[in-house]
C-alpha cells in the first residue's frame, strides 16, 4: 500500500529531534506563543495522572457532547491511526487538517527543534482553534510539569490515580510523582483529584499555589449500586447513573472525577444531570477492558501496562475464574517491570500465549517465556496475534475467557491484523 502524505510527515517527525523524549517547556512554549495558541481564550481541561487518564477524557468528552458542546480532545498513544490522537466532537480529524497544522508549526518554529509528541500537542491545539472546538481537553503524555501539553494553561486540572511509573523521569515514590503530575495546575484555578488515596503532596502543593482542591471522598463522592451508581457533592445529587460497560468498580472514580471537573470546576458550561447521564451512557474507550465476540466467553482486550492497571485486570480475571478458565495472550514493552507484572497475573491466568511484538522496544518473547516458566505458569504457545487467536480459540470451551493484554502494542496487533473485531459498542463486564 502506498505511503500517504500524512505518513510521510509522521516519518519525518520521528527524526526531526535528536531525542524521543526531551522534557521541558521552553521550546514548545515559544512556538505556541508564535502561533498565538497561548493567547486563545478557549477553556482548557488538562488531565494528568498515572492511571485513569484515558477513561477520564472519554467521560469528559462524551458528557460535554451530551451537554451541547463541541469539545476537542488530545490523547495518546493511538491504536490504529495517528488521527485518533486529535478528536473534535468525538471524531478524529482528517489528514488534511493535521498536515495543515504541521505546516504551520514547521514555519513558526524556525530553528527550534520539537519532538514528535510536541508537534502532536501543538497540532491538536491548532486543529481545535481552527475548528472552533470548545472546550479543549488535553491528556498529559508523561508526567505533567514538563509535558508538552503543559505549554497551555489549564483552567481545570484533573489528577487521576498516582502510581509508580516512568520512575526514571518522575521519581521513585508516589509523593515525588504526584508533585510532577500537579505541575499542570495553575494558581487560583480548580484542581480535581480523583485518586481515592491521594499522596499528601497534592494537598500541600495545591495550598502553596494557591489553588482550590476538590478531593474525591471529601468534596465529592460516589456510590456503587447493583446495576448503576450515584454521584454527589454538597450541591448536587445524581442518582441512578449508567455505568460505561468497560468500567470496573474502581475505575468509576475516573468518571466521578470527570463529573466533578465539569460541575465543580467549570460550572459556566452548564452541565446538568441529564447531560451527565446521557454522556456516561454513550462514553466509549476502545482497548480498555473492551469486550469482543469469540468462542466460549469471548475476548477481553486491555492496554493496561503498569502495576495498578494490571491489578485492575487481575481483579476482573479473578472474578471470571468463578465461571470459566482464563487464557492470556501477553506482551510487554521492555521499560516495564516484567517479573512484577507477571507475578500479579499468574494467580488468575490458567494458560499463557507469549506474543512476539513487532517492536524492538518490547520484551522478547523468549524473555517473557522464561519468566513464566520460572513462575510455574502453563505456556501453550508463542507467536503473533494470528497464531494466538487460533490457539486460544481452539482451547475455548464453556465460559472460558480469552484475553489480549499488557500493552497498547498488544491490542494494536490484534486489531490491525483484523484478528479481533473490537467494537466499542461491545462493552460489558463479567
Overview of this protein structure:
The chain is an alpha/beta fold and 430 residues long. The chain has two domains: 5-282, UDP-N-acetylmuramoyl-L-alanine:D-glutamate ligase (3-Layer(aba) Sandwich); 290-426, Mur ligase, C-terminal domain (Protein-Tyrosine Phosphatase, Chain A, Alpha-Beta Complex). It is 38% helix and 16% strand. It has helices at 5-16, 26-34, 53-66, 95-109, 116-131, 167-170, 174-181, 200-208, 252-265, 273-282, 307-320, 338-345, 365-374, 385-394, 408-416; strands at 44-48, 72-74, 86-88, 91-92, 136-139, 156-159, 191-193, 213-215, 220-224, 229-233, 237-241, 290-292, 299-302, 326-330, 351-355, 379-383, 401-405. The protein has an eight-stranded mixed sheet, with helices on both faces. A six-stranded mixed sheet has the order 12-13-17-14-15-16, with helices on both faces. Strands 9-10-11 form a three-stranded antiparallel sheet, covered by helices on one side. α3 crosses α9. The longest helix has 16 residues, at 116-131. The chain is globular. 48% of the residues are buried. Residues 422-430 have low confidence and may be disordered.
Could you list some keywords that capture this structure?
single chain; 430 residues; alpha/beta; UDP-N-acetylmuramoyl-L-alanine:D-glutamate ligase; Protein-Tyrosine Phosphatase, Chain A; 2 domains; eight-stranded mixed sheet; 15 helices; 17 strands; disordered C terminus
Amino acid at each position: 500500500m502506498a505511503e500517504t502524505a500524512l505518513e510521510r510527515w509522521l516519518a519525518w517527525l520521528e527524526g526531526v529531534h535528536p531525542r524521543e523524549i526531551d522534557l521541558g517547556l521552553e521550546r514548545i512554549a515559544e512556538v505556541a506563543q508564535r502561533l498565538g495558541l497561548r493567547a486563545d481564550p478557549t477553556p482548557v481541561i488538562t488531565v494528568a495522572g498515572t492511571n485513569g487518564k484515558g477513561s477520564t477524557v472519554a467521560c469528559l468528552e462524551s458528557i460535554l457532547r451530551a451537554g451541547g458542546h463541541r469539545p476537542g480532545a488530545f490523547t495518546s498513544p493511538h491504536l490504529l491511526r495517528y488521527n485518533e490522537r486529535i478528536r473534535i466532537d468525538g471524531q478524529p480529524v482528517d489528514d488534511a487538517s493535521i498536515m495543515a497544522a504541521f505546516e504551520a508549526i514547521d514555519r513558526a518554529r524556525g530553528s527550534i527543534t520539537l519532538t514528535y509528541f510536541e508537534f502532536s500537542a501543538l497540532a491538536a491545539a491548532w486543529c481545535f482553534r481552527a475548528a472552533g472546538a470548545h472546550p479543549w481537553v488535553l491528556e498529559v503524555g508523561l508526567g505533567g510539569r514538563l509535558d508538552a501539553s503543559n505549554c497551555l494553561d489549564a483552567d481545570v486540572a484533573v489528577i487521576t490515580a498516582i502510581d509508580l511509573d516512568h520512575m526514571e523521569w518522575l521519581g521513585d515514590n508516589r509523593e515525588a510523582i504526584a508533585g510532577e503530575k500537579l505541575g499542570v495546575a495553575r494558581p487560583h484555578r480548580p484542581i480535581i483529584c480523583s485518586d481515592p488515596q491521594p499522596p499528601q503532596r497534592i494537598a500541600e502543593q495545591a495550598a502553596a499555589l494557591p489553588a482550590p482542591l476538590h478531593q474525591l471522598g471529601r468534596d465529592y463522592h460516589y456510590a456503587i449500586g447493583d446495576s448503576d451508581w450515584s454521584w454527589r457533592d454538597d450541591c448536587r445529587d445524581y442518582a441512578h447513573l449508567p455505568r460505561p460497560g468497560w468500567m470496573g468498580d474502581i475505575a468509576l472514580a475516573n468518571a466521578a472525577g470527570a463529573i466533578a471537573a465539569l460541575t465543580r470546576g467549570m460550572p459556566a458550561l452548564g452541565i446538568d444531570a441529564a447531560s451527565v447521564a446521557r454522556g456516561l451512557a454513550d462514553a466509549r474507550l476502545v482497548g480498555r477492558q473492551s469486550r469482543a465476540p469469540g468462542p466460549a466467553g469471548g475476548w477481553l482486550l486491555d492496554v493496561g501496562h503498569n502495576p495498578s492497571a494490571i491489578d485492575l485486570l487481575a481483579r476482573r480475571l479473578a472474578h471470571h475464574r468463578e465461571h470459566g478458565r482464563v487464557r492470556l495472550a501477553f506482551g510487554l514493552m521492555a521499560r516495564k517491570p516484567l517479573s512484577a507484572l507477571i507475578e500479579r497475573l499468574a494467580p488468575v491466568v490458567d494458560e499463557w500465549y507469549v506474543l512476539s511484538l513487532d517492536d524492538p522496544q518490547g520484551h522478547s518473547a523468549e524473555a517473557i517465556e522464561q519468566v513464566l516458566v520460572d513462575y510455574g505458569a502453563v505456556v501453550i504457545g508463542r507467536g503473533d496475534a494470528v497464531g494466538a487467536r487460533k490457539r486460544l480459540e481452539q482451547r475455548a470451551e464453556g465460559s472460558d475467557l480469552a484475553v489480549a493484554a499488557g500493552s497498547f502494542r498488544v491490542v494494536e496487533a490484534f486489531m490491525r491484523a483484523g484478528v479481533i473485531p473490537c467494537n466499542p459498542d461491545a462493552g460489558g463486564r463479567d
